[in-house]
TrEMBL record:
Pfam families, per the entry: FAA_hydrolase (PF01557)
GO MF annotation, one: acetylpyruvate hydrolase activity
Keywords attached to this entry: Hydrolase, Metal-binding, Pyruvate
Organism: Pseudooceanicola nitratireducens
PANTHER family: ACYLPYRUVASE, FLUTATHIONE S-TRANSFERASE
Coiled-coil segments: none
Fumarylacetoacetase-like C-terminal domain segment(s): 26-223
Protein name per UniProt: Fumarylpyruvate hydrolase
InterPro entries noted in UniProt: Fumarylacetoacetase-like_C, Fumarylacetoacetase_C_sf
Amino acid sequence: MSLFDLPAHPEVPVAGESDTYPVRRIFCVGRNYADHAKEMGHAPDLEAPFYFTKAPAHLCLTGATTPYAPGTADYHHEMELVVALGAPVFRATRDRAEAAVYAYGCGLDMTRRDRQQDGKDKRRPWDLGKDFENAAVIAPLTKASAFGPVGSQTITLTVNGDLRQSATLDQLLHDIPAVIVHLSQYYHLGPGDLIYTGTPAGVGAVQAGDVLHGEIDGLAPIDLTIGAPE
């Protein structure tokens, strides 16, 4: 018998389904749009994607009001396409990688930019900057068969109605199959794994009271309100 009970895995609604998608892991791709890499002071890296992770317990569903994150004075938005896997995949080919995708969704990778920069400056991990409560926001998923191939769909984010981020998904430096192929060389991927695929240029700070609204053509939109600090 356990000493105490842990919360259940978070679950994400799926459009047209009564069953939800349980989340076991969250992988995130860094600097996967050229213009975002440049705005962060880096040359675009075409050799291979790189990753960080977020705890599933830090997942937050669209429509929430979340506190301005503690421990930061530079809290940033990052709008992203999220991939939800639905089949086991390890050392995948591109065909197997594509077949393993169950659904897509809109996501927000919320970031304590000053804490991330601390890690960079001191050559330490980014955990304080990326992995914290409510740092992974997600909208209901749309099954891959209903979304179609990832290509020229537009991805946008507004803050209080002002456009902050705008790009198309074909600007990803490493496309969805390439990311899954590469990540599957290091992990036995499978159902319950989410992959946040990177953010376009235009990331920036948010303040208490801000209302974020993100869209990707063909997917359910995402909304988040930034509450007062705790």
